[in-house]
Each structure stands twice: as structure tokens, then as C-alpha cells.
């Protein structure tokens, strides 16, 4: 009995020793994951084999994705996952495909058309898991519809459509002037460039320049690019540009000049007064020897004018008194002639 118990215990101990340890959840390298059938497993007992697969957009470039758990350790994973290549997107007639980023999964390519062609479709292509996404666009030759008509003007030639780089020309009718480019070209986007011109009536007004006269140039009416030249009258100076041109806005360019009076410069006349001083002894002056030069200085020229007015006044008073005396004597002679003779006799006797 004792021997049998010993054998049983030894067997159980050996069984416990021989039982191997399981593995933890395996982890792959970048761009790969466990296959779907192994993702849901929570335990990985000793001896189990699982497999990894490359992610979407990646492919196996060598090695196996299978690993095995052995006594708690996974065998080496040698799977090599690299991005898939989309290769060329194809040939594009009248255009170019640019692979600036490359041709592998996730890369982008761009498409441009040659001059004179318009792109129809997507300009960008993306490399996907199954190749280039979207359809390859096409490049179609550019055509332009007829341009818009303008008021008071026409264009030629008139057609249903125009090829790339084909030109048309605008002209104005009547006395109207074309403002803008008269030549338009069928350009990118199927549109004529530049914008159509405008036909407008240009007439500048008569130049209104005070103290100026017409010298040369056009006569009214003054149409576009008419030129006139003006000059100032005598005694005036011109400021600005003498020749003007009628511009597209019915304005004189560069603007009307002006005529300003010429400034006359005069030199002031200076009168110099010389004073002579003598060193003789002072003498008493009587009224008979008094001269204007003996008077105190009262302002030079002002004193001279004062004496002149005084002299004129004295002469006028003397003339009036003489007239009065003559008139009285004439009356006395008419009333009493003998009195006049007596006065003459007395005057003669009084003469020595």
C-alpha cells in the first residue's frame, strides 16, 4: 500500500512538471495585423500557430506571416509588408501626368494639359489598394464661343466658334472712338481676352484760358487726340504746358495752363541831401535876413511842399486884393472924375 501511494504521487508530480506554459497575444510589426480568425482569441496555449497578414495597401515582399507558441515564446515573425505600387496611370494625349510623390499606395499624381487644351475630368489621381483611383482625365482642344456685342461697334470675323489663339477685331461706327483693345484672342478657359472695348463719343470743350490766344493746332470740334497750342497775351507769362491733347475721357491732357501777369521790377530813386556846416560865430538874425534854410528841419521834402503851398496861397490873396482895389478905383472915376485927377496930382507932387 505504501509503495503504490508513492508511485501515484511521483506520476502526478511528473505530469505537472511536463505541462508547458502558453503565450501572450502576439504583436506584429508595422503595416500588418493578425488574420481575422485569430483576432478574437484570448488565450494562446503552447503549440498553437497563428498568422499575420499585411494591411490594406501593403503586400508581402518576402517571408511567412505564421508564428508558433513554444513553451510561452512565439517563433520569429519574418513577414515583410511594403506599400503596393500602382505603376503608370497611362498615357495622356495632349497632356502630362506628374508623379511628384511617387506611384505607391497613398501617393498623388497631378495632370496638366498642353497649351491650347482644356482638362476634362479630375486633375488629381490617388494610388489606392487596387491601383489608381478615378478615371484618367482627357485634354480637349480649346474653343471659344462668339464674344459679346458692343454698343456702337462691331467685330469680325463672325463665326459659330473659334479655335485656340484665333483673334477677332473690333471697330466703332460713326464718330465714336474705341476705348480699350481692338484685338481679342481665344484663350484658356474658352474665353476671349482681354475684355471687349467700349465705343464712346469723344469731344473736348473749347479751352477756356484767360488772357491766352490760340496759336496752333486743331479747330473745333475737338475729337480724340486733337491737339491745340496756346500762348499768353503780352504782359502775361504762361504756367503749365502750352500744347494739349484731347484724351479718351473728353478732357484736355495734361491740363489747361494759366496766364499770370508779368511782374515788373522797378528801382527806387534815392535822393541824397548834403548839408554843409560852417564854423563862423553866431549872429543875431533879423526878419529881413531869414531864409527857409534857417528854419528847423521838419522833415525834408515835407517842408519844401509846405513852402510851395504857402507861396501859391500868398499869390492868390494878392491877386484878389488887386482886383478889388482896381474895381473900387474904377467906380470912383465914373462917379467923380476930378477926384481921380487930384489923387494923380498928389502922387506926382510926392515924387522927389
From TrEMBL:
<keyword id="KW-0732">Signal</keyword>
<dbReference type="InterPro" id="IPR000436">
    <property type="entry name" value="Sushi_SCR_CCP_dom"/>
</dbReference>
<feature type="domain" description="Sushi">
    <location>
        <begin position="84"/>
        <end position="141"/>
    </location>
</feature>
<feature type="disulfide bond">
    <location>
        <begin position="54"/>
        <end position="81"/>
    </location>
</feature>
<keyword id="KW-0325">Glycoprotein</keyword>
<feature type="transmembrane region" description="Helical">
    <location>
        <begin position="304"/>
        <end position="325"/>
    </location>
</feature>
<dbReference type="Pfam" id="PF00084">
    <property type="entry name" value="Sushi"/>
</dbReference>
<keyword id="KW-0768">Sushi</keyword>
<protein>
    <submittedName>
        <fullName>C4b-binding protein alpha chain-like</fullName>
    </submittedName>
</protein>
<keyword id="KW-1133">Transmembrane helix</keyword>
<feature type="domain" description="Sushi">
    <location>
        <begin position="202"/>
        <end position="261"/>
    </location>
</feature>
<feature type="domain" description="Sushi">
    <location>
        <begin position="21"/>
        <end position="83"/>
    </location>
</feature>
<dbReference type="InterPro" id="IPR050350">
    <property type="entry name" value="Compl-Cell_Adhes-Reg"/>
</dbReference>
<feature type="domain" description="Sushi">
    <location>
        <begin position="142"/>
        <end position="201"/>
    </location>
</feature>
<keyword id="KW-0472">Membrane</keyword>
<keyword id="KW-1015">Disulfide bond</keyword>
<dbReference type="InterPro" id="IPR035976">
    <property type="entry name" value="Sushi/SCR/CCP_sf"/>
</dbReference>
<feature type="disulfide bond">
    <location>
        <begin position="232"/>
        <end position="259"/>
    </location>
</feature>
<keyword id="KW-0812">Transmembrane</keyword>
<feature type="compositionally biased region" description="Low complexity">
    <location>
        <begin position="269"/>
        <end position="284"/>
    </location>
</feature>
<feature type="signal peptide">
    <location>
        <begin position="1"/>
        <end position="20"/>
    </location>
</feature>
<keyword id="KW-0677">Repeat</keyword>
<feature type="region of interest" description="Disordered">
    <location>
        <begin position="330"/>
        <end position="352"/>
    </location>
</feature>
<feature type="disulfide bond">
    <location>
        <begin position="172"/>
        <end position="199"/>
    </location>
</feature>
<feature type="region of interest" description="Disordered">
    <location>
        <begin position="269"/>
        <end position="297"/>
    </location>
</feature>
Amino acid at each position: 500500500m505504501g509503495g503504490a501511494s508513492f508511485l501515484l504521487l511521483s506520476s502526478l508530480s511528473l505530469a505537472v512538471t511536463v505541462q508547458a506554459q502558453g503565450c501572450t497575444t502576439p504583436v506584429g510589426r508595422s503595416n500588418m495585423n493578425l488574420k481575422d480568425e485569430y483576432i478574437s482569441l484570448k488565450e494562446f496555449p503552447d503549440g498553437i500557430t497563428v498568422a499575420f497578414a499585411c494591411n490594406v495597401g501593403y503586400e508581402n515582399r518576402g517571408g511567412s506571416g505564421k508564428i508558433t507558441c513554444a513553451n510561452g515564446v512565439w517563433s520569429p515573425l519574418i513577414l515583410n509588408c511594403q506599400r503596393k505600387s500602382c505603376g503608370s496611370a497611362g498615357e495622356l494625349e495632349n497632356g502630362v501626368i506628374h508623379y511628384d510623390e511617387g506611384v505607391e499606395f497613398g501617393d498623388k499624381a497631378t495632370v496638366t494639359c498642353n497649351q491650347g487644351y482644356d482638362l476634362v475630368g479630375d486633375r488629381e489621381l490617388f494610388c489606392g489598394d487596387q491601383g489608381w483611383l478615378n478615371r484618367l482625365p482627357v485634354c480637349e482642344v480649346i474653343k471659344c464661343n462668339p464674344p459679346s456685342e458692343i454698343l456702337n461697334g462691331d467685330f469680325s470675323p463672325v463665326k459659330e466658334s473659334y479655335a485656340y489663339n484665333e483673334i477677332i477685331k473690333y471697330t466703332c461706327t460713326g464718330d465714336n472712338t474705341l476705348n480699350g483693345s481692338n484685338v481679342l484672342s481665344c484663350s484658356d478657359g474658352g474665353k476671349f481676352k482681354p475684355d471687349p472695348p467700349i465705343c464712346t463719343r469723344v469731344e473736348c470743350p473749347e479751352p477756356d484760358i484767360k488772357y491766352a490766344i490760340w496759336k496752333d493746332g486743331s479747330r473745333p470740334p475737338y475729337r480724340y487726340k486733337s491737339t491745340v497750342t496756346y500762348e499768353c497775351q503780352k504782359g502775361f507769362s504762361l504756367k503749365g504746358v502750352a500744347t494739349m491733347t484731347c484724351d479718351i475721357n473728353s478732357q484736355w491732357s495734361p491740363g489747361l495752363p494759366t496766364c499770370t501777369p508779368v511782374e515788373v521790377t522797378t528801382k527806387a530813386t534815392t535822393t541824397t541831401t548834403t548839408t554843409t556846416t560852417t564854423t563862423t560865430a553866431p549872429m543875431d538874425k533879423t526878419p529881413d535876413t531869414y531864409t527857409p534854410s534857417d528854419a528847423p528841419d521838419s522833415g525834408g521834402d515835407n517842408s519844401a511842399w509846405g513852402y510851395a503851398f504857402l507861396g501859391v496861397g500868398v499869390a492868390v490873396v494878392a491877386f484878389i486884393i488887386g482886383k478889388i482895389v482896381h474895381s473900387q478905383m474904377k467906380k470912383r472915376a465914373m462917379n467923380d472924375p476930378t477926384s481921380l485927377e487930384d489923387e494923380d496930382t498928389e502922387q506926382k507932387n510926392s515924387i522927389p
